[in-house]
Amino acid sequence: MIRFFVVACISLVLHATAARAETNPALIAECFDAEPRYYMEGIKVKGLGIELLQYISSKASRKITYRDEITPLTRAENNLLAGDIDIILGIGKTPARAQNYVIGESLFEQSTMAVVRKNDTTTFKTLKDFVDLGDRGVVLGVRSASVTTALKSVPGLVVDDAANNIEQALEKLVAERGRVAIYNNVNTPFIMKKPQFAGQLKVADLDFSLASSLVVTPQYIMFSKKVSPETVAEINGIIAKGKENGDIGKILAKYDIK
Question: Per its UniProt record, what PANTHER family does this chain match (predicted)?
Answer without folding.
Answer: AMINO-ACID-BINDING PROTEIN YXEM-RELATED (PTHR35936:SF19), MEMBRANE-BOUND LYTIC MUREIN TRANSGLYCOSYLASE F (PTHR35936)
